[in-house]
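FIELD: query
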Amino acid sequence: MYSIEPDVPAGPLEVRVPLQGLKGRGAASRIAHRFERDQRDAFDDGWALPAEAESPGAPRTEVIWEEAKSAMAFNASPDVYFDRSVNPYRGCEHGCIYCYARPTHSYLNLSPGLDFETKIIAKRNIVEVLRGELARKGYRPGLLAIGTATDAYQPVERELMLTRGLIALLADARHPFTLVTKSGGVERDLDLIAPLAREGLASVFVTLTTLDADLARRLEPRAAAPHRRLRTLRTLAEHGVPVGVSLAPQIPFLTEDLEQVLEAAHEAGARQAFYHVLRLPWEVAPLFREWLQVHYPQRAERVMHRVQEMRGGKDYDSDFATRMKGSGPWAELIGQRFRAAAKRLGMNQRQVALRTDLFRPPAPEGQGVLF
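FIELD: result
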């Protein structure tokens, strides 16, 4: 069902249909994307709804195949530590309500709301396309980030194994890579990742926003529980993989256990850490407001006021200088807390530099190496 914005008065005969959370989903509606001309809102016109319309089941996940024209995306952003990335999927079944990649579904004429987490675009030929790009004459290797927009180990990866295919290709080419995930599924590929890590070619970050299992279930409904992510960190570290923890995003009055998260991650083996504050570009802002009204209505106003304090009075500011960490006293306080805790634990003392000197262009698909 669609919600009616709280600042838009209902007509004299209209009664707003209450918005409810959907089990296992982050978004509560198929919010209209920014390119749509019309937007529909639900209201009670007095006619009785059939039982199935009153209690619709959780929407099912649909995989849509896509033939990718390119694999690597390059960026020159000064606030990003890598200049190239590859994403085997568009959309993400984890359903994290804060995901800054949600607006990309608008370009597909799909909703950044429920469609983003139920209509997953899988790039069928991503491995072959990346192989061709790595084999191009003049290509120079650099750190390649996997799954920076949407999680490369979301549930559909169990069957499709596109991420595993990418890692196998990078192993063959001796190309350095890092990945960020919320899933224990990365453990499946330890047979590939661990040997590469020992050669200085791979590292992994696990996102751990909070240790509060109830909050995590609401924020990231189909991602692994916090205790499971800690187990993944420990397993990776025990296999010699350089591991770090991402505390992104930090949300005022919700994710309040920053120090405890760092302590638990360090105890599990993480030696690197970073954080970002909540980012609400384009349709993510109304989606997050909607989510607050469904799950934390009594805190909604306070949360958004504090977010706006970190964004110069707006929901979001895309300025490279502040988009990741925010600005103002509250943003500075989060930064001080993070730096103090990381220093006390001895984290971020030594940066992991992955090697590029072992790179060898991959052979074309189906063609072996002659010498």
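FIELD: remark
Residues 1-17, 48-55 have pLDDT under 50 and may be disordered.
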